[in-house]
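Board work, copied verbatim: Zinc finger C2H2-type
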Amino acid sequence: MGRLWESLPVILLLLVLLLHQSVSQGFEESESTRLVNEEVEVSNAPEIHCSRERSRAAWQIIQDYLTPFVERERYEIPKNCRLHPDNDLYRDQEHHKVHVDVFEWKCGYCKKSFNDEKFLDKHFSTRHYNLLNTTDTKCLADLCGALHCDFVLSSKKPKSKCNPPAVAKNRHLCESVANSCFPVSQGPSASRLHEHFLRQFCDAHTCTGNDKPFPRGGKKKSGVFYLAISILTLMLLPLFYLLVFLHQREKRSGTQDLRRIIKCGKKTKPS
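↓ predict structure ↓
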């Protein structure tokens, strides 16, 4: 009996993992089927030569490593700056993403639900492509070279050999962004942000390997790991108390049986 209770947490964990795998697989199959149908229905979607993934990475880098400093200076980025939100081709669609739950994403245009962000991206590309303004060059992914998107996206991959011409091109792009977005003639705030942008992004465009991107830090990350541990603890706490209760009950039951045996032994008279 004791061994059964000891193995109970392992059994429950295996059941939860199997249930999660089956549910996720079912969701993915249903979403894949839905997207195949959408692709058949909408076959005239134009091909857009702008990576959504890299645009999203560039936007996140801006939010993490530049926006906090811009807000601190109370500086308004000019619209002709390529970092301005209006110059992000996918910004409106990204604003219409609703992350309801871990396995639920909802389209803000038509309210359809998806179990993964990649399916929602595909939905945008096939159903709401007409909402994209493709008349102007507004691909934020084009700035990935200056903003070190590869450093963020490929942080766990082995580093490729440095290419001096590519590094020089990215540095020139980085400096041109700094000049157009934070012209030093616009006052002290713009001048400080211009200096910050050069140090934060442009200095790392070198083959020496001495300078790393984002040396001045950025937005503080929330403790996702500690949050997950807290949730897991709250989930396992009732199970722990249940096991303690069952153990105590089994222990009391054993004690009572022992007392009965002792009493029976005392009542039995010697022959």
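The first strand starts at residue 97 and ends at 101.
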